[in-house]
């Protein structure tokens, strides 16, 4: 579902992939793990999330997610408001 106020996206990350370290100017996000294991760096802390675990990230917090395992990582990311065009790479 996507609207100007909310975005809910199911994402799959192959083994060994990561996204660029970034933050969002206005979007708050919640990552919820469905399959695999996510390593999320949030500011100066590292979190390892497994299925049925989640992490809330406030707007302005620098973060990245990576898949260190040999299997796909499947998760849902909810953004409010939507994060399209709101991503600043650091």
Query: Main β-sheet: number of strands, strand sense, barrel status?
Result: 4 strands, antiparallel
For the record, the count of structural domains works out to 1
Q: Taking Cα atoms only, what radius of gyration do you get, to the nearest Å?
A: 12 Å
Stretches where pLDDT is under 50 for at least 5 consecutive residues are: none
Distance between the termini: 28 Å
Q: Based on CA inertia axes, which overall geometry fits?
A: globular
Question: How would you write the strand order of the largest sheet?
Answer: 1-8-3-6
* Beta-strand content: over 45%
Provide the CATH superfamily: Jelly Rolls
Count of distinct strands:
9
- The third-level CATH topology is Jelly Rolls
User: How much helix, percentage-wise, in residues?
Assistant: under 10%
For the record, the CATH class is: Mainly Beta
What string gives the helices and strands in order?
EEEEEEEEE
Classify the secondary structure makeup into a structural class.
mainly beta
- Please count the helical segments: 0
Name the average pLDDT: 94
Can you name the CATH architecture? Sandwich
């Amino acid at each position: 579902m996507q609207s100007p106020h909310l975005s809910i996206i199911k994402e799959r990350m192959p083994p060994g992939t990561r996204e660029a370290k970034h933050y969002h100017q206005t979007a708050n996000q919640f990552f919820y793990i469905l399959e695999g294991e996510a390593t999320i760096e949030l500011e100066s802390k590292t979190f390892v999330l497994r299925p049925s675990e989640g992490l809330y990230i406030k707007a302005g917090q620098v973060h990245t997610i990576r898949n260190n395992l040999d299997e796909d990582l499947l998760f849902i990311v909810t953004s409010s408001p939507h994060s399209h065009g709101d991503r600043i790479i650091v």
